[in-house]
């Protein structure tokens, strides 16, 4: 499937989304629910307080077979040192060392293959790029037939335990093959909301049955793309194509933590010299606008003398904070927490301050 074709695809949960009152919109080449009847605000707060179920089946899933350590040709993460039962966040780099995508990869206990998940919008290009760069060493088997659900929130573990006994013993960034509601599954304790939670990979044929079982629990509501975006922004997490893209490198994006210690020492990944020189000209930062007006993507950021020094890449209202929040890039001399700047909203200078991220503390079970 190519987005340029104009054909919108549907996940295995499309009919269930309609049944639940989902407002469907085009997203990454799919018809996806942006919200349900509860609305974005209530869905967001419910996920922070109880548990929300997200359909993320549009993401790209694959298995990498062969010399899986060869994945290090395209990522600065430590793929060779990944232990069984562990998952890792990685950046997919271009030959120039800029960010082609961000992704997750796992090594399942007792299995030689590596499980890989990439973003929906870029999955075709990502898989083709990985396949090309790893040719002769490792090969990808794509699994578009699989569905992916995310159960997120402080009550996610207690809910999932009822359908997958023992899963609450799993800790953050660990992964296991098990069953959920009787269906074979790959479950990792991770997610993109900043909350404790799980991502559940299952066969597409099992998706609706598993989703109904989880939604049948009183603590769980279905959650759409709108709340998913506001949750990840509060958590200070990047959205590919907005906060990171092929114009940014890991240092500029403030993602040096994702580079393995051994890889930093060896400087053996694309663009290592540029990334590790310690002095990026621009840097990704968090911003707290004063007042109630949000600074949306594309808003220019100005120094107090009026000079434009950056731009907002994600911005909106943070329901958990009852205040606007934003993320963007500024010249490094203005990137220190507490720096006062102006946000040019509808032609007017609105005061803001550089703020630490995450805006809402992460609650992962480590």
Short description:
With about 375 residues, this protein is α+β, with helices and mostly antiparallel strands.
Oligomeric organization of the protein chains = single chain
Q: Which spans of ≥5 residues are poorly predicted at pLDDT below 50? A: none
Mean pLDDT: 97
Strand order of the largest sheet: 10-11-12-9-3-13
Strand percent estimate: 25-35%
Assign a percent range to the helix content. Answer: 10-25%
Order of helices and strands: HEEHEEEEEHEEHEEEHEHHHEEEEEE
Q: Which secondary-structure class do the elements indicate?
A: alpha+beta
Biggest beta sheet attributes: 6 strands, mixed
**Shape type:** globular
Number of strands: 19
Radius of gyration: 20 Å
- The helix tally amounts to 8
Task: Describe this protein's structure.
- This protein is an alpha+beta fold and 366 residues long.
- 17% of the residues lie in helices and 34% in strands.
- It has 8 helices and 19 strands.
- It has a 6-stranded mixed sheet with strand order 10-11-12-9-3-13, with helices on both faces. A 6-stranded antiparallel β-barrel has the order 14-17-16-15-18-19.
- A hairpin with a 4-residue loop joins strand 16 (308-318) and strand 17.
- Helix 2 packs across helix 6 (225-234).
- The chain starts with 13 loop residues before the first helix and ends in an 11-residue tail after the last strand.
Set out the fold topology:
Layout: H1 14-19, E1 23-27, E2 30-35, H2 40-49, E3 51-55, E4 60-66, E5 86-93, E6 99-107, E7 114-118, H3 123-133, E8 138-142, E9 146-152, H4 156-161, E10 175-180, E11 183-188, E12 197-203, H5 207-215, E13 220-222, H6 225-234, H7 261-266, H8 272-275, E14 282-289, E15 300-302, E16 308-318, E17 323-331, E18 340-345, E19 348-355
Parallel strand pairs: 3-13
Antiparallel strand pairs: 1-2, 3-9, 4-7, 4-8, 5-6, 6-7, 9-12, 10-11, 11-12, 14-17, 14-19, 15-16, 15-18, 16-17, 18-19
């Amino acid at each position: 499937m190519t987005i340029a074709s104009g054909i919108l695809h549907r996940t295995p949960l499309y009919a269930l989304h309609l049944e639940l009152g989902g407002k469907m919109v085009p997203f990454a080449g799919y018809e996806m629910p942006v919200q349900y009847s509860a609305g974005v605000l209530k869905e967001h707060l419910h996920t922070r307080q109880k548990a929300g179920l997200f359909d993320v089946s549009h993401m790209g899933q694959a298995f990498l077979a062969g010399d899986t350590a060869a994945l290090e040709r395209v990522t600065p993460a430590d793929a060779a040192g990944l232990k069984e039962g562990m998952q890792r966040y990685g950046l997919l780099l271009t030959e120039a060392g800029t960010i082609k995508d961000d992704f997750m990869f796992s090594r399942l206990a007792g299995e030689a293959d590596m499980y890989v998940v990439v973003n929906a919008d870029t999955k075709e290009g990502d898989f083709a790029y990985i396949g090309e760069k790893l040719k002769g060493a490792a090969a990808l088997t794509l699994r578009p037939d699989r569905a992916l659900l995310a159960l997120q929130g402080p009550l996610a573990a207690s809910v999932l335990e009822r359908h997958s006994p023992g899963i609450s013993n799993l800790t953050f960034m660990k992964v296991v093959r098990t069953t959920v509601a009787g269906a074979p599954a790959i479950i990792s304790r991770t997610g993109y909301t900043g909350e404790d939670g799980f991502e559940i990979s299952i066969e597409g044929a099992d998706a609706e049955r598993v989703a109904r079982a989880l939604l049948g629990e009183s603590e769980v509501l279905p959650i759409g793309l709108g709340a998913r975006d506001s949750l990840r922004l509060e958590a200070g997490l990047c959205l590919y194509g907005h906060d990171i893209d092929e114009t940014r490198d890991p240092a500029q994006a403030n993602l040096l933590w994702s580079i393995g210690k051994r890889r930093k020492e060896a400087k053996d990944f694309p663009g290592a010299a540029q990334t590790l020189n310690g002095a990026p000209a621009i840097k990704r930062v968090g911003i707290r606008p004063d007042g109630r007006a949000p600074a949306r993507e594309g808003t220019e950021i100005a120094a107090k003398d009026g000079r434009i020094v950056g731009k907002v890449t994600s911005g909106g209202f943070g329901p958990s904070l009852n205040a606007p929040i934003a993320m963007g890039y500024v010249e490094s001399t203005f990137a220190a927490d507490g720096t006062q700047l102006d946000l040019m909203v509808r032609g007017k200078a609105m005061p803001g301050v550089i703020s630490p991220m995450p805006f809402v503390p992460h609650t992962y079970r480590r």
